[in-house]
Amino acid sequence: MNPLLTFLVVLIGLYGLSTSKNIIKSVFCVTITEAGVILLFLNLGNLEGGSIPIFAEGLVNIVDPLPQALMITTIVIGSTVTALALMLCIKIFHHYGSVEWDVVLRDGGEE
């Protein structure tokens, strides 16, 4: 995959995050940005014509498995953070009656 396309995915996520008025949409935009960053790291760790480093003789071009291992960890942590953020959105909805940033920020100080 072209690094320019992965950078475009990151920019789409950041654009959505900056223009979203809904908290749930903001959570999904953060997830899209995270997916773009993961794709960028996997793309940068790729070696054209490289082979996997598993018990073979005469390997010259070996792909580094460290970025892949780090990104699978990032995916697991990111899905957990997304689930937690969506649960907080449910709590915000129960408390304020809305998931719009304007309503929550306006009514945030009135307790």
Specify the structural class.
mainly alpha
- Any idea of the CATH topology? Helix Hairpins
For the CA atoms, what is the radius of gyration? 20 Å
The CATH class, by name, is Mainly Alpha
The general outline is: elongated
Secondary-structure element string: HHHH
Range of helix content: 55-70%
User: Judging by the overall fold, what is the CATH architecture?
Assistant: Orthogonal Bundle
β-strand number: 0
In round numbers, the mean pLDDT is 88
Number of helices: 4
Parts with pLDDT < 50 across at least 5 consecutive residues? none
End-to-end Cα distance, whole Å, is 50 Å
Q: What share of residues are in beta strands?
A: under 5%
> How many domains make up the 3D coordinates?
1
User: Main sheet?
Assistant: none
Could you explain the architecture of this structure?
- Helix 1 runs antiparallel to helix 2 and helix 2 (about 25-45) packs antiparallel against helix 3 (about 65-95).
- The termini are far apart.
- By secondary structure, this protein is mostly helical.
- The protein has one domain (about 5-45, about 65-105): Helix Hairpins (Orthogonal Bundle).
- The longest helix is centred in the last third of the chain and has 31 residues, at about 65-95.
- The protein has helices at about 5-20, 25-45, 65-95, 100-105.
- The model has no long low-confidence stretch (mean pLDDT about 90).
- Helix content is about 70%, strand content about 0%.
